[in-house]
Amino acid sequence: MRIVLVGPPGAGKGTQAAYLAKNLSIPHISTGDLFRANISRQTELGKLAKSYMDAGNLVPDEVTIGMARDRMEQPDAVNGFLLDGFPRNVSQAEALDQALKADAVELDAVLDLEVPEDEVVKRIAGRRICRRDSSHVFHVVYSPAKKEGVCDACGGELYQRDDDSEETVRRRLEVYHTQTEPIIDYYRAQGLVVTISALGKVEEVTRRAMDALKREDDESSDGESSEGDASA
C-alpha cells in the first residue's frame, strides 16, 4: 500500500507510522529522516537543503519533493510506502500526485489521525524531559515521575522544553490548520481519506488504523473488479 499519514502535532504520527510500516511490510518515510540521510550522505539535494538551512531559510518544496521521490523509487518501496510529514501543504500534495503519475503509480489511502485540540495541548504541554538524559521522558498525567520534577531512572531534573509550552503548541496547531489540514480536503475530493480516532492506547490506535486501511484496500479491490467486469 502507498499511504500518506496526516494529523496534528501530538497525534502520535511517528509512533503509529513505525507500527503501521512494520505491520504492512513497507518503509516508513519521514521528512526528518530524508533530510538527515541526504545531508549525511552529502547528496546534491542534501547539500542544497543544507545551504538553505545554514542560511536560516526554509528548504524549497522542490528540494523536499526531490528527496521524497528519490526515496520512493528505492527497491524496498516498490510494493508501497508510508509517508510521514510529507506532503505538508497542497502544493506539495499536487507535486506528489504528478511524481506518482509519472511513475504510473498512485496513493491507496490518506490516513487522518483525529485528535481533539485540547487533547493535543494536554499531550504535548504535559511532557517532561530529563536534563541528564533526554531519552527519559515523562508526562504529568499519563506517565508521571514517582517524585515530581525528578527522573525515576537517574535522578536528573525534569523540565518542560520551550517548544512544549501551551502557547507554542497552540501556535503549532495554527500552522497545522492553515498549511497542512487543507490537504485532507484535497485528498478527500479524490476519495482517499480514511479518518480514525487517535485517542486511546497505542496498540488500540494501530489496530483501528489497520482495520480501516484493510477496509479501504478491500473496497478499492472490489471497485477495480467491478470496473473490470463492466468493461469486459
Would you give an account of this structure?
It catalyses: AMP + ATP = 2 ADP. This is Adenylate kinase. Helix content is 52%, strand content 14%. It contains 9 helices and 8 strands. It has helices spanning 13-24, 31-41, 44-54, 61-72, 90-102, 117-125, 166-180, 182-188, 202-231; strands spanning 2-6, 28-30, 81-84, 109-114, 127-130, 137-139, 158-159, 193-197. The chain has a 5-stranded parallel beta sheet with strand order 2-3-1-4-8, with helices on both faces. A 3-stranded antiparallel beta sheet has the order 6-5-7. Strand 5 and strand 6 form a beta hairpin. Helix 4 (61-72) runs parallel beside helix 5 (90-102). The longest helix is centred in the C-terminal third of the chain and has 30 residues, at 202-231. The protein is globular. Residues 225-232 have low confidence and may be disordered.
Task: From the alpha carbons, calculate the radius of gyration and give it in angstroms.
Answer: 20 Å
Order of helices and strands: EHEHHHEHEHEEEHHEH
| CATH homology group of the domain at 2-115 and 169-208 | P-loop containing nucleotide triphosphate hydrolases
Number of helices: 9
Shape: globular
What class, by secondary structure content? alpha/beta
Kindly report the average pLDDT value.
92
End-to-end Cα distance: 26 Å
